[in-house]
């Protein structure tokens, strides 16, 4: 068991005596604060903070981080306030401790919400001081090492949280050694039987492989010596969790994964990395699609290496990573390398990337509606695989695997994403939903009047894009529901001989009091969202029945809108007689006057709204068409040509063969109005193979 004296001795290799004394002081304070408290294992509680500080000392962290590690559970478990810590050890240490402490005083509805709120609090603290996350990771690592004494359900919950959040964060910060330990320990706790079996299979496979691994290693080493390259060649072991995830994601057997032999070659300089690559490509043939140059384009977390896959003796695949000693240390320690190998106060690339990432988290946090949405976006953002694409000016943009041009647009700037209408990939027009490949050049085409499309949420992969689109749509929905609510209330008040704009301050105040809301805007929004009926709200205002007006219909001006939607059962289009129905959460739903579904809804007249088409109504409206045809070649092409000649879009097409001679084709078209539809039907009717054509409703 670690003691404070042993830790102090370890710290003397890189900290000043005055700083070591401050760490010792923090230890004694924590020991006193946790006096009498025991861990589940039966050990005194102080053994945990001491072990966390020891993990940080291996990274050569500064004295303030080590003090925070000693004190990290004091606020949470002993009731000592943050201000007391500030007075004793300074504001910086108190802030670090507070950033790591969980929210304990608040009651949460669910475990997921509690986890999300705590993570949100930690993100804010990380933005002020990146060391918060390193103390938290060390705390989690020691908890994972001592997980054995926990009850099974708690063990699984902690392991899942580690695999979903802490292991990806360690990866994002380039701390590979810590990530591997998190993953292996998390896997063993989540799936003990699978881990046990895999471990046994791995041990027996290792014995069979030893000879071949050594043969390949020697042939690589010899080739490099012949080329006068001084290099260290190491056989690389795959860890348990990575074997398990590869088996699951790539649907491969254990044998298939173990048939790949992995090596790492460590050399003295970047120049030698490329010479080494040439030498081993001359020894074994490379698989050309498997080469990746992470030295020229480092990964998001600062990782640098050359990756190649060779076909070795007996056709076995050999994975090789080539890197310098500094790159190897960076790959294993990541952001911790900033402290571990610190020679001056200039932050290294990994440190700057980490700050950038935290800044991105903060932006997401501001846009997220709640903590659960925020943590979902963070999980998306922690995807380990990246694609690297170029802007037209040659700047590299890093995106998660599977990202689309919309993700790219939001990565450039939120305003570019919001105004995006089309894109070019390598100077050719491409769909906004097309997944991007590394090395492509992406150009975004924007329009001032454009706005995000809700359908984008079906294909974007980055947390930033998802949170920005949701934020915009929420904002838009808020404004549209207020506008719709205002119109509906104005109409209902007019039925009672009142005018909304003429209501005096006192009448508005009484109305809000009776309605139980604090502002007219909130009242309008609730009406627009269908949570309140406009008639019921209008009835709260004393009326003058002599001035009552005949109902004036609400005018529909556009096909686009979030709070006015068109029923799919009857698909009304401009020119059709229509009626509106106020639906909770959806706003106003417009039906055809003769729609069967509206008959039941008419039983509650308060939910029915009079609506009409504006003379200037604009946009495309979907309409269903049913075409009976004689079967034959080229019918679909002929139909499509006639329809597109009339400037209509085909949104959907389904073909049902009735028998060998006849088929029924169901189409959904985008049309402007009834006149436009009539023209299309006339043109399609003239096709020789068409037997019957009609508009399909209900």
Automatic annotation (TrEMBL):
Residues 624-698 form the ACT domain. The keyword Zinc does not apply. Residues 45-144 form the HD domain. GO terms for molecular function: GTP diphosphokinase activity; guanosine-3',5'-bis(diphosphate) 3'-diphosphatase activity. The keyword Coiled coil applies. Gene3D superfamilies: 3.10.20.30, 3.30.70.260, Beta Polymerase, domain 2 (3.30.460.10), Hypothetical protein af1432 (1.10.3210.10). SUPFAM superfamilies: ACT-like, HD-domain/PDEase-like, Nucleotidyltransferase, TGS-like. Transmembrane segments: none annotated. PROSITE patterns: ACT (PS51671), HD (PS51831), TGS (PS51880). This is guanosine-3',5'-bis(diphosphate) 3'-diphosphatase. It comes from Simiduia aestuariiviva.
């Amino acid at each position: 068991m670690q003691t404070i004296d042993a830790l102090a001795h370890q710290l003397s290799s890189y900290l000043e005596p005055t700083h070591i004394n401050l760490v010792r002081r923090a230890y004694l304070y924590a020991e006193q604060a946790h006096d009498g408290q025991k861990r589940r294992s039966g050990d005194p509680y102080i053994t945990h903070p001491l072990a966390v500080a020891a993990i940080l000392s291996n990274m050569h962290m500064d004295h303030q981080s080590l003090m925070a590690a000693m004190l990290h559970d004091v606020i949470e478990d002993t009731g000592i306030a943050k201000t007391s810590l500030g007075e004793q050890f300074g504001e910086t240490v108190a802030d670090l401790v507070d950033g790591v402490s969980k929210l304990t005083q608040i009651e949460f509805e669910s475990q997921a919400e509690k986890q999300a709120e705590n993570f949100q609090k930690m993100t804010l603290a990380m933005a002020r001081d990146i060391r918060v996350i390193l103390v938290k990771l060390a705390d989690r690592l020691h908890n994972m090492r001592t997980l054995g004494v926990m009850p099974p359900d708690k063990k699984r919950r902690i392991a899942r949280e580690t695999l979903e959040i802490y292991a990806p964060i360690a990866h994002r910060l380039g701390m590979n050694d810590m990530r591997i330990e998190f993953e292996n320990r998390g896997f063993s706790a989540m799936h003990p039987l699978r881990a046990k079996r895999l471990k046994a299979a791995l041990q027996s496979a290792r014995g069979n492989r030893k000879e071949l691994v050594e043969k390949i290693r020697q042939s690589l080493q010899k080739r490099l010596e012949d080329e006068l390259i001084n290099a260290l060649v190491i056989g690389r072991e795959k860890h348990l969790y990575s074997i398990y995830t590869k088996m699951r994601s790539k649907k491969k057997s254990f044998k298939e994964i173990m048939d790949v032999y992995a090596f790492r070659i460590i050399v003295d300089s970047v120049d030698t990395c490329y010479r080494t690559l040439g030498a081993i490509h001359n020894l074994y043939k490379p698989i050309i699609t498997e080469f990746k140059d992470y030295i020229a384009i480092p990964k998001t977390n600062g990782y640098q290496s050359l990756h190649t896959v060779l076909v070795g003796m007996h056709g076995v695949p050999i994975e090789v990573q080539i890197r310098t000693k500094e790159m190897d240390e960076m790959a294993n320690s990541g952001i911790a390398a900033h402290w571990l190998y610190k020679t001056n106060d200039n932050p290294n690339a990994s440190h700057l990337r980490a700050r950038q990432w935290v800044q991105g988290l903060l932006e997401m946090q501001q846009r997220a509606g709640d903590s659960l949405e925020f943590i979902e976006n963070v999980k998306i953002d922690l995807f380990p695989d990246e694609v690297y694409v170029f802007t037209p000016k040659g700047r590299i943009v890093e995106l998660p695997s599977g990202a689309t041009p919309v993700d790219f647009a939001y990565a450039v700037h939120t305003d570019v994403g919001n105004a995006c209408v089309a894109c070019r990939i390598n100077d050719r027009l491409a769909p906004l939903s097309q997944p991007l490949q590394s090395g492509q050049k992406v150009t975004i085409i924007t329009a001032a009047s454009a706005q995000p499309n809700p359908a984008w949420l079906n294909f974007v992969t980055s947390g930033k894009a998802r949170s920005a689109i949701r934020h915009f749509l929420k904002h838009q929905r808020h404004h549209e529901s207020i506008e719709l609510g205002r119109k509906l209330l104005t109409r209902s008040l007019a039925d009672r001989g009142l005018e909304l704009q003429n209501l005096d301050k006192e009448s508005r105040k009484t109305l809000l009091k009776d309605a139980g809301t604090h502002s007219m805007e909130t009242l309008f929004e609730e009406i627009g969202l269908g949570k309140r009926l406009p008639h019921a709200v209008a009835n709260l205002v004393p009326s003058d029945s002599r001035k009552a007006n005949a109902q004036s219909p609400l005018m529909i001006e556009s096909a686009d809108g979030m709070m006015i939607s068109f029923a799919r059962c009857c698909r009304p289009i401009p020119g059709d007689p229509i009626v509106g129905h106020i639906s909770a959460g959806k706003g106003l739903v417009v039906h055809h006057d003769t729609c069967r579904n509206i008959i039941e809804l008419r039983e509650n007249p308060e939910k029915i709204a009079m609506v009409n088409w504006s003379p200037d109504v604009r946009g495309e409206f979907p309409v269903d068409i049913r075409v009976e045809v004689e079967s034959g070649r080229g019918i679909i092409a002929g139909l499509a040509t006639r329809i597109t000649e009339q400037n209509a879009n085909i949104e959907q097409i389904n073909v049902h063969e009735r028998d060998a001679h006849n088929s029924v084709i169901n189409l959904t078209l985008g049309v402007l109005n009834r006149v436009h539809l009539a023209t299309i039907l006339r043109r399609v009717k003239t096709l020789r193979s068409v037997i019957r054509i009609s508009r399909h409703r209900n």
